[in-house]
Amino acid sequence: MSFAGILGRDFVGALGFPTPQSSSVPPGFLPTDSQSPFLHDMHGIHQGELVNIGVLGATGTVGQRFIALLESHPYFVVHALGASARSAGKAYSKAVNWKQTTPIPASVRDLPVHACEPEHFRECVVVFSGLDADVAGDIEAAFRAADLAVFSNAKSYRRDPHVPLIVPLVNTSHLSIIPQQRSLHTPPLRKGFIVTNANCSTTGVVIPLAALERAFGPVESCLITTMQAVSGAGYPGVPSLDIFDNIVPYIPGEEEKMEWETLKILGGIGESDAGAQAFDMHAGTPLRISASCTRVPVIEGHTETVSVRFARRPPPSPQQVREALLAYTPEAQTLGCPSAPRHAIYVHEEDDRPQPRLDRNYQQGAGVSVGRVRQCRVLDVKFVVLVNNVNIGAATSSIINAEVAIAKGVITL
Amino acid sequence: MSFAGILGRDFVGALGFPTPQSSSVPPGFLPTDSQSPFLHDMHGIHQGELVNIGVLGATGTVGQRFIALLESHPYFVVHALGASARSAGKAYSKAVNWKQTTPIPASVRDLPVHACEPEHFRECVVVFSGLDADVAGDIEAAFRAADLAVFSNAKSYRRDPHVPLIVPLVNTSHLSIIPQQRSLHTPPLRKGFIVTNANCSTTGVVIPLAALERAFGPVESCLITTMQAVSGAGYPGVPSLDIFDNIVPYIPGEEEKMEWETLKILGGIGESDAGAQAFDMHAGTPLRISASCTRVPVIEGHTETVSVRFARRPPPSPQQVREALLAYTPEAQTLGCPSAPRHAIYVHEEDDRPQPRLDRNYQQGAGVSVGRVRQCRVLDVKFVVLVNNVNIGAATSSIINAEVAIAKGVITL
Amino acid sequence: MSFAGILGRDFVGALGFPTPQSSSVPPGFLPTDSQSPFLHDMHGIHQGELVNIGVLGATGTVGQRFIALLESHPYFVVHALGASARSAGKAYSKAVNWKQTTPIPASVRDLPVHACEPEHFRECVVVFSGLDADVAGDIEAAFRAADLAVFSNAKSYRRDPHVPLIVPLVNTSHLSIIPQQRSLHTPPLRKGFIVTNANCSTTGVVIPLAALERAFGPVESCLITTMQAVSGAGYPGVPSLDIFDNIVPYIPGEEEKMEWETLKILGGIGESDAGAQAFDMHAGTPLRISASCTRVPVIEGHTETVSVRFARRPPPSPQQVREALLAYTPEAQTLGCPSAPRHAIYVHEEDDRPQPRLDRNYQQGAGVSVGRVRQCRVLDVKFVVLVNNVNIGAATSSIINAEVAIAKGVITL
Amino acid sequence: MSFAGILGRDFVGALGFPTPQSSSVPPGFLPTDSQSPFLHDMHGIHQGELVNIGVLGATGTVGQRFIALLESHPYFVVHALGASARSAGKAYSKAVNWKQTTPIPASVRDLPVHACEPEHFRECVVVFSGLDADVAGDIEAAFRAADLAVFSNAKSYRRDPHVPLIVPLVNTSHLSIIPQQRSLHTPPLRKGFIVTNANCSTTGVVIPLAALERAFGPVESCLITTMQAVSGAGYPGVPSLDIFDNIVPYIPGEEEKMEWETLKILGGIGESDAGAQAFDMHAGTPLRISASCTRVPVIEGHTETVSVRFARRPPPSPQQVREALLAYTPEAQTLGCPSAPRHAIYVHEEDDRPQPRLDRNYQQGAGVSVGRVRQCRVLDVKFVVLVNNVNIGAATSSIINAEVAIAKGVITL
Predict the structure, then answer these.
(1) Whether the predicted interface score ipTM is above 0.85
(2) Homologous superfamily, domain A200-389
(3) Source organism's superkingdom (chains A, B, C, D) (predicted)?
């Protein structure tokens, strides 16, 4: 019997797989058969098997989103919750100021909140971290040292030369550096490691760039303007007085992150003379990124205008770009990861899409939407990207990364 | 085998019935068993039976919501679509400027749009009307004359002395006037009739008022201020320049509608000497309603502050009011109507709820939320209501009304 | 030569006095002569005389508004600035995160910021306090003890039985309690005292209520719903995630403040057997106030729906109410206070006014706007009020209170 | 006696000239003397002389802004109003749905509205057109043929080879083509002509580009993303349902306009062999513009991110760019045009500016604000521009254009 059969339509629908709703095929798309094949072949896990997970920073914005997203996951079960000392000891429903538009899952409502110490998470196979950057560094290191697999949304280890920075629809191949990361410990770790996911705005742009590089070879330069939603700043985050009827054309550190992270994600892994692995930062074919980041009065969903110049001359046409984006299938899909979107990149044909309010929840926010693919008079091609900053731009990325790590045997159950 | 078994979890979840998510019981609520009993006993329809329905005004705001809501309905199937002459002849996806946050259902995408003429709807058992008031009167009359059952969201027939004005969580007993309505035609109609549902703001307030009258006897006066979302005005509706960073303290005709409709809905049906039935407009115990209606910069969900004075002295305490609201079970639930909410009235304990953005989609917007039940220094008790103006305040009301009409045999299949 | 002649058109215009703009008379208003008479007779101050003032909490929201408003004041000159220890020692432009839509006044930009200690304010005749409630109590007491005249926007002393709570368009007569307040000190103060102004929402409703009581005698009950702007919560104040596309139906403590402050403001001052003066809290004719306070996504300007029942039977008609509101002239106008509005109450004839975005800056926000005066089916009459929460609801109230205190000789120069 | 002396502080302040407020010099600016020199030398008009003007499309968004802006103009007097047949014959206050935040000027309130026919405008020296594009073409042609000087905000004649497209802070030299435009009529016109101003987004970008080209020679390419306010779409314009909590990444025709208009404005005027003058469209040094235009939930003020590549190698540094922007003085200032801003380009030093809500009304919206000047990794330099789309982006442009035409004698009084 197939896995899909066990799960039933409900779960499938909850994660953006073929239900009557999400299967509606937009004009210009090839019809897909309604039974997604990869559900029948979900690598690394047996039917009915469950995997305990923990959530660090469980009361925060990203922590809440982890919990909401995992409510109907086929095998991840929220087992332990960590938050600040102030919350420790309380039932989750008492500790959290829940701000999601769905109620607290019944299975989590009464779980106790612990301090973020590894001892409370010993029964967890995976730990998702939604911690703030100011505390994430030490806590995540302690969890790794306790031989736990940490999937972090924080920025603390993104620049670490032994920690992969993985956008799950792009560079899951970078998990190959985990053995080296473990070996650096004394004694070497057996199971523990840290994997980070990228900044939400970076995530939005590297997914289409990865598709374009796969189809057309290296991108040479890329100019981006972001219009980022307030939820990207967490809670309380952006004061309403700062952003009502307004735009703030600056987000501290954001442009540098985009310009740097993109190189690590889209680059490969090379080997030094001494045999150590190292991220090559796209060095073989230098890639110049220039980002202008702004905050806009939108709740969820970052919109980005992107102009691209390819190394290849003549460059691909807008129509070829559109087709390459559509055709892009990341490893997370091939491996049957249940939280991966059906369309990694949804390509809109209408001139006025994507729009954050209408499109951010498509496929539970697990893919990106691209529209307005057209010629750029200065570079080669330009388009608009929409990325759900809280889902694929944050919690969903960590979740799929963990699914991939299981599917590829990096985590053994 | 139970109906729930056939439907599977997916449908149930889609309509707000017990899924892991919607079953999460808030503090202060009695636990409910996860298998809602009335699903096993859905009156008036056999397992697996399907019912063709038509949608008039299918390209408009309310029409779109009908179509989105019916996507996963257990027995209603969208069969025919009507819109203005401009749209007639096109495929639905070409005719509509779809503004919902879920894609057009695949089963509707390619349906042809017809002119709003009965001949195209002959195979429909039920016709839902989301027509604008300026055209609804004539078209709905023609559909009734063609012996079709019309459930209308338009205001055209709300004041008609033979047309029931039904809020499905309040006065489904008013369906009893349908035989009289049919008999007025020459020759008398066998199947055709019109049922209207109420204005969205009226709907929000009559549901808790009905609960209070059931528990404590007549309400004597009620003072309401509404803060109404822009979606209540349809599309294009309210210009952004009028409502950004603003409140408009006036909605033409709205206060009169609230003050009048409430009397028809909460009143009973009496009999004249000649044996004709007539709505009594709550005449036995006069009820004074005073409403102040405002438009606020919110997309969906009307918030209303309500102060109530009871006839009974001493009046019930806030705690008694809270319990009465919680305990309220309308006929639509007893009859097992699939689109009825599990909680007709959700009572919030937190001081700062309900809030439209967080609470409007609870139970797919099919119930109302009440919070801040407390003493009023001028009348007796005051509270805050949130009603999803597009769901229970519009399309969902029509749908449940039709489900009730089937369950009670007013419509025979 | 007249005072107006000296000041020139610029100052006059800046404060809402007759310029071509503000003199435009709406339909239904009696024409007013363009030379406002009371400018010629500004009590308590000689032509050209200047008055040094200090601002406490100068870097906060209300402090910034004091500074912006006083930029073109005819006799108040910003002389000393106080803020938290963190800001002390810096130039104002370095200490403040200026959020006004006009630049920092040149004359204030380089003023040093001091700690909030009386020694730095010895040359000030008047001290305006925009301090947060958590520190205002002690600091304002220290300033009073140092024989300084403190006009406070904080709530700390509003309930003090010897401190007047003055809405300058309503109860400036309450300044008569100042001698008693001074006499309680040992030794009695010669100049020092504290005057508070009211909560912003209270201010909006007591101005029309005062007009109605003056014209028609006691009001018996009053039911209010407020829709309050985010600027009322200060900075950072309301997180954008809480209020975008949303309404929060609760503001801690606000309803109690409105219900209580109204009684102190609209009441009189009685005398005990021992000869002490005491606020009578409207006790002679009990007044019941019931308020429901909500936060709405508006930047500035609180909108309030108000229903009123008069003691007098039959009650006045809506037209009589409209005329009484229009005719209302508070003492601050009679005394020629330069920051007093020309129309204490502007009465709109259009159905859809007042609106915060369009009307909040009329007369620099120094008056209130009333619209939609009509019958109430439950009480007698209902209407809509708009009050600029940051101007007459906060800083402007303190400023006019000080002007009145000078005009009446409570402060001697 | 100087002109400033006659006008008094009020007028000067109203137009952004040195008042205590607008003279406040931001950090990093050279102090300017508070008496702006060019006020003493306002070309083309004598002290006290008044000029009758007419407004076409007077009830529309741009028409209202013309009227609000001209309220305190030193010599332009609103004399005749034109609108659609529906409004003709009414008093202005009855015909208009006034949406400005200041009241209708008293001097305009009772003016009659005429049909847009030249006979009603015979006493006008200048006619400002805020007509919609669908009617502007014929009406403006008729007014020109009636020998009237038309300054139009409509797009109808922007591409006309004999009509100058003038951004008044950039290319007032293009007025030199007016004699040729007049000569094409039979018989040649003595006074009539049409001058258009640019699209609001174009206006924002050409002002800094003009400053850069003046300082550093030709710009080679320019990549722009706009975030445009809803007021740019007129009234009713953008439905709130389309733009609340949303971004629409498409504005029909806007990108083409920006890419084309920029060439006409920044280009020069050449001469054909036959001696006719022609706009050279920047042909000598080709300029490539690529724009991505989006609509954002902001009421007023377009924000634009701009990246520029210069022809000159090496390119100027960000600091040199900043200085060049600051130093830029357009002819409209040199000529003493009263509506010209004091700073054509205000350069912000703070990282998080310009912001539309805080900066759009600086200098009554007559200049542009630039911030975040920094290196671009793909082109040379990037920065953020804010332009008030309704003022310098529309009505103010027409007004300054007319002032320049008077100052240069193109219009003779």
Answers:
(1) yes
(2) Dihydrodipicolinate Reductase; domain 2 (3.30.360.10)
(3) Eukaryota
